[in-house]
Design brief:
With about 425 residues, the protein is an alpha/beta fold. Helix content is about 35%, strand content about 25%. The chain has 3 domains: about 250 residues, 4-Layer Sandwich (Purple Acid Phosphatase, chain A, domain 2), CATH 3.60.21; about 80 residues, no CATH class; about 60 residues, no CATH class. The protein contains 12 helices and 19 strands. The radius of gyration is 26 Å and the shape is globular.
Length: about 425
Amino acid sequence: MPKFAHMSDVHIGAFRQSELKSLVLDAFDMAIDRCIAEKVSFVLMAGDIFDSNIPDLTSVRRAAAKMKQAADAGIRFYAIYGSHDFSPNYSSIVDVLDGAGLFTKAEVMSTLQGQVQLSFVRDPSGAKICGISGRKLSIDRDEYAVLDKGALEAEPGFKIFIFHGAIEELKPPSLEQMEAMPASSLPAGFAYYAGGHVHSHQSKSLPGRPNVTFPGPLFATDYTELLQLANGDPRGFYLVDFDQGGVSDVEFVPVKVCDVVEVHYSAHGKSSVQVAKELTELASDSNVGGKVALLTVEGELSDGKTSDIDFSAIRKRLMASAPLMVLSNHSHLTSKEQAKLAGPPKPVQVTERELFEKEISRVKSSEQKLRGEKGVSLALALLKTLKEGKKENETKGEFEGRTSRAGLGVLGLEATDR
């Protein structure tokens, strides 16, 4: 009986630390090695294979070499974009690998009389695959709204739908704020629904839509997900046995590249001197050799300042037992002394307005809109526009152009061609 693998949200290129980048790739290598050993017919990649549309080339080279090894073993790859590796203006690394013959994009889309039409990609195993890529800001939702589901549902044979987005009926409680679409957005009557985007694994059947499956990442993409690993949350992918009659087995295959441990410390009610001493002892006694170590410190100090604690020295103590990596998070460590000195914090908007009201008298202009309360309101509106940072995967040129246009709009001006 043939089988295929289903992966998603690998996020190759995630993390700025080279050690963690390498662990993401180690997880990908282990997953592909298992696919080769299982002699799968093909691998479905349900988006966010890479952490950006143009990731660092060192990671791309290693990932491509591994996929080439699988391709040489007769394994085919079918992929869609995720919200991270998609770009509306530039070619993605997914396009590059598709052009090189390592991937086949599973989204073959056209529009006819206002409806989105999808064509099937036919695998030599007999499976028929189609899907819709993830887009930024969930704009792929518009494509589902006008998708010609009838034509897809009428197609006979073993069919797989691949997508990148959360399903309302299957959304985990921890992700209740995540935007999601109802299962009815997906065409009915497929044998398997290969999902991505949700960073946790599950496989459930819904009315008319069996085997709606999310594998989650193979490793992690940030500190929070590393904490989940430390708490025993499994990572991996799915292996699926099938024939033309349907799916016979869906198996979650765990992937573990290393141990991740959390060294947790509560500083609540203790002085900075006591905390520094106890953290140094804790770091010296912790056995984190060969593991990713997460140092989490939280609580309110009874005396002293957070800056009294030398976290750099404490991390060095942890490094003495030769961990793979040490990351620390003390953003929830506070102090009574600093709170008293600072007084109750003012909302940012109040502070900004007070500053502009103080400085507006220095403005010398005949323009009424630049003076007095009008000037303050205009300055606040312009500041709000300028504070909007660079969007994910937005190029420097796109960011500068968007910011300039928005700023000119606030001022009531139009851009001129240069």
